[in-house]
């Protein structure tokens, strides 16, 4: 999808330039603490001033400028199905459901720690809806030991979806094995894998001003392999960042630039996506909140900063509500509008996210998708040619008449009004048949029907068998711990 709307600004251009300049000052004068020894050595080789005692790295402006010059402004993401390939650049528009949740919930089974079954079911729902374009780490399958979890998560994605998959940056060993599994399952040669990005990860800096060992390792692993990393500081105003929008965005921008620079030092031209996840907290409890005016403004500022450096970028919606109620719907929709009007390339947590990321809800995923489908239709070109102007209909219908049966209407109505929703809502019955059942309850029947009738995308049986063999061998050898 393409975003047809001019992006909104929250700050003037000179203030965005001032924020960018302040972020460069933070990196050069205050520095960033980098816990990974090899990452510090890479920065030092690239010209940064490194204090090994304090682990502080001071990154010069010229280093950042050089990194931004080599980071690609536009690049493809290759999916299992070519029709689902994505173009990462400013102006593209990609939606993802909620991600990274330790719990899952639905009306039938209640709130529970995430399992492999939940992960596979949520992949299935994401695959079903065309308006969800990439697979994120929807829920953490905690019934699978951590040294085996990457096998289950990669296997689920290879079997159930042909969209762009996600790989956690949990140590070089797990990343390497996940890359190998992806290549086996989708028949990707070493040369093609190196030439194009076939998967992605998310790198969260440890705010304020710290890049920890797993995330630094992830930046280097993905850059070295030529796979996309979405660099996303998680800055909450008043907690891990200054309480003002401008202050929080200055810190977020600095941290993103630091990680982008590391990736480009490892592999000049490696695909990277600028990211932000900035909102505010409840100052009484310290809990994160989303869908607020500050969240909205931070998204607009992030969009301006992304355009200032020219990179595709990721933003985030979300909700801190505990239930999939009207508060949750309002928070998610308000947050998503902020991403849309900010011109985000990728919008994460756009469907199903609850409790500030503690839970992904099956029902809320369904109800949020309806809003995303409306947004997708809103971003579809609207005809204003002779047919769209409808002079023939205006001539046909006389004063006091109606357009229900006009030829112009009859030729168009079946495709003009939310046809993508028909298949999912066709079997829920009339109002009289279903009674006064609320939207969340109706959503239960929809997701259950999708799971019941789901047909996985056609995959190569020999390749999937080879993937199973690979996984069996690795498990027999003891798996792979995240730190390996």
Describe this structure in words.
There is one protein chain. By secondary structure, the chain is an alpha/beta fold. The protein has a single domain (1-381, 418-484), classed as Alpha-Beta Barrel (TIM Barrel), CATH 3.20.20.480. The chain is built from 19 helices and 19 strands. The chain has helices at residues 13-30, 37-45, 61-70, 116-128, 149-160, 172-186, 190-195, 213-225, 245-266, 293-309, 326-342, 362-378, 386-389, 391-396, 407-416, 419-425, 431-434, 439-453, 461-476, and strands spanning 32-34, 49-51, 56-58, 75-77, 86-88, 94-95, 103-105, 112-113, 200-203, 210-211, 228-231, 234-237, 272-275, 277-281, 288-289, 313-316, 346-348, 353-354, 359-361. The strands form five sheets. Strands 6-17-16-13-11-9 form a six-stranded parallel beta sheet. Strand 4 (75-77) and strand 5 (86-88) form a beta hairpin. Helix 10 packs parallel to helix 11 (326-342). The longest helix has 22 residues, at 245-266. The protein is globular. The two termini are 39 Å apart. Residues 416-423 have low confidence and may be disordered.
Looking at the structure, the CATH topology is TIM Barrel
How much strand content do the residues show?
Answer: 5-15%
Query: What is the mean predicted local confidence, pLDDT?
Result: 94
How many strands, which pairing sense, and closed or not: the largest β-sheet? Answer: 6 strands, parallel
Number of domains: 1
Contiguous low-pLDDT stretches (5 residues minimum) are 416-423
């Amino acid at each position: 999808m393409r975003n047809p709307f001019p992006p909104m600004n929250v700050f003037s251009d000179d203030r965005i330039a001032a924020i960018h300049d302040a972020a460069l000052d933070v990196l050069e004068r205050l520095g960033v603490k980098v816990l990974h020894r090899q990452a510090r050595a890479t920065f030092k080789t690239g010209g940064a001033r490194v204090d090994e005692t304090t682990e502080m790295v001071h990154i010069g402006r010229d280093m950042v400028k050089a990194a931004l010059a080599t980071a690609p402004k536009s690049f493809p993401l290759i999916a299992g199905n070519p029709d689902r390939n994505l173009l990462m650049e400013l102006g593209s528009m990609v939606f993802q459901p909620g991600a990274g949740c330790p719990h899952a919930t639905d009306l039938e089974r209640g709130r529970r720690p995430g399992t492999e079954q939940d992960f596979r079911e949520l992949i299935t729902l994401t695959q079903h809806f065309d308006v969800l374009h990439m697979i994120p780490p929807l829920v953490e399958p905690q019934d699978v030991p951590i040294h085996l979890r990457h096998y289950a998560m990669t296997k689920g994605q290879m079997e159930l979806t042909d969209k762009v998959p996600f790989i956690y940056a949990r140590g070089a060993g797990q990343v390497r094995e996940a890359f190998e599994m992806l290549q086996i399952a989708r028949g990707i040669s070493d040369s093609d894998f190196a030439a194009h990005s076939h998967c992605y990860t998310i790198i969260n800096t440890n705010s304020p001003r710290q890049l920890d060992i797993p995330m630094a390792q992830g930046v280097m692993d993905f850059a070295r392999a030529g796979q996309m990393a979405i660099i996303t500081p998680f800055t909450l105003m008043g907690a891990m960042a200054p309480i003002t929008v401008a202050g929080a965005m200055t810190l977020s921008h600095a941290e993103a630039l630091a990680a982008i620079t590391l990736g480009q030092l490892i592999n000049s031209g490696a695909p990277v996506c600028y990211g932000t996840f900035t909102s505010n907290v409840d100052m009484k409890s310290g809990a994160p909140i989303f869908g607020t005016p500050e969240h909205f403004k931070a998204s607009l500022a992030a969009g301006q900063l992304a355009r200032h450096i020219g990179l595709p970028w990721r933003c985030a919606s979300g909700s801190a509500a505990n239930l999939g109620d009207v508060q949750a719907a309002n928070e998610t929709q308000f947050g998503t509008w902020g991403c849309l009007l900010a011109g985000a390339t990728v919008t994460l947590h756009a469907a199903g996210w609850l409790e500030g990321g503690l839970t992904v809800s099956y029902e809320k995923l369904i109800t949020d998708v309806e809003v995303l489908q409306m947004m997708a239709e809103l971003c579809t070109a609207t005809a204003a040619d002779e047919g769209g102007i409808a002079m023939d209909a205006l001539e046909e219908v006389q004063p006091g008449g109606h357009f229900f049966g006009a030829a112009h209407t009859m030729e168009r109505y079946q495709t003009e009004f939310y046809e993508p929703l028909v298949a999912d809502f066709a079997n829920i019955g009339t109002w009289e048949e279903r009674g006064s059942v609320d939207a969340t309850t109706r959503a239960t029947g929809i997701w259950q029907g999708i799971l019941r009738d789901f047909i996985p995308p056609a995959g190569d049986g020999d390749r999937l068998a080879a993937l199973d063999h690979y996984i069996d061998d690795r498990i027999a050898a003891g798996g792979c711990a995240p730190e390996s």
